[in-house]
Amino acid sequence: MAQQEIRAQIGVYGLGTMGSALALNLADHGFDVAVSNREADWIDAFLPEAAGLSGNVTGHADLADFVAAIASPRTILFMIPSTKPMDMMIDAITPLLSDGDTIIDGGNADFNDTRRRSAALEGTGIHFVGMGVSGGEEGARNGPSMMVGGSDHSWAQLKPMAEAIAAKFHGDPCVAHLGPDGAGHFVKTVHNGIEYADMQMIAEVYGLMRDQAGMDAGQIGQVFDGWREGPVASYLIDITAKALASTDAGTGQPIVDVIRDQAGQKGTGRWTLIEALKMGQSASTIEAAVGARGWSSEGDVRRAAQALLDPATQPADIPGTDDMENALLAARILGHAQGFRVLSAASAEFNWDLDLARIAEIWRAGCIIRSALLDEFAGAVRAGLPHGHLILAPAMRTRLTAALPGLRRVVAAAALSGQPVPALSAALAWHDTMALGRGTANMIQAQRDYFGAHGFERMDQDGAHHGDWLR
Ligand SMILES: NC(=O)C1=CN([C@@H]2O[C@H](COP(=O)(O)OP(=O)(O)OC[C@H]3O[C@@H](n4cnc5c(N)ncnc54)[C@H](OP(=O)(O)O)[C@@H]3O)[C@@H](O)[C@H]2O)C=CC1
Ligand SMILES: O=C(CO)[C@H](O)[C@H](O)COP(=O)(O)O
């Protein structure tokens, strides 16, 4: 067969961490892959890695050659920054494409951009897919979780390849077509928001052990190692245990002890919040996590403030590690419940008809937030959420009743001893807000009516009312 007759089933553009791993995963599963990259050197460096895999991998420095190497209708996956570079690449590649071809943005995109790009290509015959990919480099290489938004036509093209390379939970591929345009990227954004909250909660418990219980990294690592099999078992607990056991080659110290306490962020956590707030939702655990990353960047101020601020700490019994495990368990349920609530609101807002149970199912393996609890979440969502809330599902109520005492003791001890636990506190405060039939918003309404004549509803009469305020 002549060389030009061999056409790849998929093109992968962008051979960075994620693109190269996904291309290798595809080739490992027998798919023929055409690859390209802005800097051609990366293509030459990449191709030897793909040698010997079952699929044929060809490299193409020229964009037109890359497109020509892919069988029609084409499926082209971009793993590049989903910001300006994605717009530039859409502009560059679109004139080379034909009716029925699909461009996939597999990066972490703001779903508003995905909707804009989908709308711009509407009617051109070219389809646009926003696909969230989770699992980091290792997941991309060996089985990620993927959240797809786009047309049925594109999904039909992509499905066999996506299902083959996805992580499997008891044989079920962790990938699904979740809706049109921005649905996949929105779900990935909320996944990352939950990821932020979970990471922050773990960091807070680590802080209690380090700063209040006086444990060193090795000792804390052993506690997390012991949690790898229990109810809080998760990928993030796993890597926390491994990170705590890792040593810095240069100094011989635990590596966590030489890392500056300043967290980076690329936007997905913040986007979750922005979208939640726009829809009148509060994802307070995620907000606490995003805020904590923000405050962490003010290291110089915090070091100066430590000498100036008196925390007026009070004696506290530092809870044992069983309480801390329960605190993480309860807070993880509450954090996920907020995430699912945001998804549910977005589904209604954008008419996506998101299948929340399927979303929970495709998060059971491959993704960063995979955990022992996710199968329980999936079961609870599939059974139907009372009043639309995960925390009201019978299995979750049972779990919360057992774990909340630990969360309360941890938050109380942290407050007394001056240890910041913003995400754990936010989780508890949200639980208690939801558990209080008569809250305190009557006072907010009184104040609003007092200063602004905004009116209020009464419990005993219909209609809008004003108070006879003393002035
Ligand atoms: N790393 C992770 O854990 C995860 C990342 N993602 C997302 O995947 C995408 C890729 O991330 P990752 O692989 O980590 O990033 P890398 O930095 O490893 O690679 C970035 C890739 O984008 C290319 N690129 C950058 N700018 C441009 C441009 N202007 N035009 C064309 N190509 C460009 C780079 O090409 P060049 O070699 O020429 O610089 C390179 O191939 C991002 O959207 C990221 O958010 C999603 C899930 C997890
Ligand atoms: O999508 C991911 C994991 O799911 C990426 O690793 C992402 O970069 C994580 O977000 P941030 O860099 O803001 O911590």
Automatic annotation (TrEMBL):
It catalyses: 6-phospho-D-gluconate + NADP(+) = D-ribulose 5-phosphate + CO2 + NADPH. The keyword Transferase does not apply. Keywords: Gluconate utilization, NADP, Oxidoreductase, Pentose shunt. Substrate binds at residues 108, 134-136, 191-192, 196, 266, 293, 448, 454. One of its GO terms (molecular function) is phosphogluconate dehydrogenase (decarboxylating) activity. Its EC number is 1.1.1.44. Residues 184-470 form the 6-phosphogluconate dehydrogenase C-terminal domain. It comes from the Bacteria. It holds the Pfam family NAD_binding_2. GO terms for biological process: D-gluconate metabolic process; pentose-phosphate shunt. The active site is at residues 188, 195. Pathway: Carbohydrate degradation; pentose phosphate pathway; D-ribulose 5-phosphate from D-glucose 6-phosphate (oxidative stage): step 3/3. Belongs to the 6-phosphogluconate dehydrogenase family. Catalyzes the oxidative decarboxylation of 6-phosphogluconate to ribulose 5-phosphate and CO(2), with concomitant reduction of NADP to NADPH. Homodimer. This is 6-phosphogluconate dehydrogenase, decarboxylating. It comes from Pseudosulfitobacter pseudonitzschiae. The lineage of its organism: Bacteria, Pseudomonadati, Pseudomonadota, Alphaproteobacteria, Rhodobacterales.
